[in-house]
Amino acid sequence: MPPGISLESPNNPAVKALTFCLRALFIQVQAALNPQSMAAFWTSLSMKLYDILISRILQHYFISTVGAVLLSRDVESLRSVALLAGTNHLHWDILRELLTLYMTPPESIKTLLLGADADVHAGKGLFDRVGKAQSLIFLSRRIDYRFKSTHGFKKSAWVVELLVHLNCSDPTDAPLNLSLFTADKLN
Q1: Residue 53 within a domain
Q2: pTM of this prediction exceeds 0.70
């Protein structure tokens, strides 16, 4: 969280400026393009915004609970601009679901990943909708996922326990593959 940002602030200043500009340009772009071209252009713009945001989150940030609240507001603003035109905006809905991983206490994360039945085969959790590796990689950006020890960074006890319960290895032990998160893979 940048200094000076509070929970009362509706959006990050950069997101606020970007959404303002996109809304202002929307009318001009709409006037210049036929409906099919407009839909294709705005869908592409939406997907590119998503891809940039996901890349920044996964490569540069660790998210706290308060940070997740602010991030969800920014995502909602970007999503509302993306929905002005075009089709295939499912990626924003999936991102909204993934953001709940940052706001949920560790003891309830298994339910988000597998669904209320805690059955990987029930098809109700994030593993089914987004993918196992994608969900776990996104989860790894929680600020409490790792802690600094005298021997470097280690996974928190709740993470180790979760991975054992899920019978999963940690996909963050390998290099990050950002292509798993592109908007065109989710739509």
Answers
A1: yes
A2: yes
